Amino acid sequence: MIHFDNVTKVYTNQNRPALDHVSVDVDKGEFVFLVGPSGSGKSTFLRLILKEERPNSGAIHVAGKDLARLSNFKVPHLRRRIGCVFQDFRLLPNKNVYENVAFALEVIGKPRRFIRKVVPEVIELVGLEGKAHRMPDELSGGEQQRVAMARAFVNRPMILLADEPTGNIDPATSIGIMKVLDRINRTGTTVVMATHDAAIVDSMRKRVVELEDGKIVRDQSRGVYGQAY
Amino acid sequence: MRANFIFSEVWIGLRRNLTMTIAVIITVAVGMAMLGVGLMIKAQVGAMKGYWDDKVEISVFLCNKGSAMPACNGKAVTTAQIKTLEGHIKGIQGVKEVFYEDQASAYKNFQESYAANKALVEATKVEDMPQSFRVKLVDPDNYQPIIQAIEGQPGVSQVMDQKQLIGKFFDLLDKLSFYALAVAIILVLAAALLIGNTVRLSAFNRRRETGIMRLVGASNLYIQLPFVMEGTIAGLIGGVFAAVILIVTKVFLFEEIAGYFGDVTAQLTWNDVAQAITVTMIIGVLICVLASFVTLRRYLRV
Hints:
Chain A: This is Cell division ATP-binding protein FtsE. The complex is a heterodimer. Chain A is α/β, with parallel strands linked by helices.
């Protein structure tokens, strides 16, 4: 599903590479934690999958497509198959829960009838039934992140990328967020989650890829956050 | 493509940037009106030239008794001189027709022209009016050699060409249209910059929305169209105002002025106005679209 082959990314005006000869394979339906200190290259990894950045060398395949050969006007179609969740939720403050989720479908031109059908379903999936007409500022952080997850998942993407989704949320609420991510993963969606949260990684017992200074220092199935030797 | 979605985005954008939008509309309206007026003056000059080319003639005034013109030496023209002159004028190349106007008919014309000024009419006697030849030319623009050929002939006091008088007026109109077009170009430039700024503000205001749109895979067209439409709609509204200004100008300015210088055939037609409006609309909208696109490429990464 996601295939990195010897990928190096150096940002302009920086000497040290953000990713240094990284090779990873993520299969369909996998759940992968991406761990490592700040600046280790986690976010760069996610941005490369979205083709928000281009690698300096190496090849990236996402959903069977060679990103280097994907023309610019086809990038939006790639992104429709990838959902994204961020630490800062990125909801539209002037739209309610339903409208925020529906927005993702409206802007890719889905018919209204389809939107009316799937949006309530996905709002229920993330556990926000009955709150469809709340505004984002009336919701807790955890609830806002659920809205963001609903928006990321409403188009049934093949891949869900989560960049520290629990970074702004207290540990108790984080468990609920992880349950939703796990539920999404069980529908067959590949989930890649970058995180600093050791407790969550340890409790989930999923594959862990650890980055340090742009290099992969560990790739463990059913791993934990710290060194498990 | 969800048209109502695009339009609601456009509406939100226009409302949020209301003051900038108004500035764009005013600038486009005035700029396009200037451009249109310039075009209309050009059309007006064309219409009047066509009208006057049929009418203009050279007036050859003949000597009166006691004429102040040095060419006459204070003597009136003799009948023999009139005969020779008529033959001479008819023989000049480029002359179409020659009419002779005697003192009586000249006095009648004079009375008609100055009907309002009774004192002047009463003070003037038939003998004061000059006899004259009215010379029509094959090519009204080519009057110089003919005047030269007539001037200085015995009995000729003064040769006047209406083309010379009207030419000054046409020159003035040409200058006016040039200034109007120059102002239009400056205003169009200002409008383009204003639209650029409006779109930039708009893009900044909606960076959250566009960020999410990018993320969920909205196509570039979908992301950019609302911004371009904003500029285009502002430009269109400005163009409509400009069209109104042009129509008002035609009715209250061009028809009034043209009334002094000729009949209906010398007037700007509604066809000319429609052409000016079409041209200004197209230019206005094109500039808006271009300015929006150029700005978007810089401020809205896709």
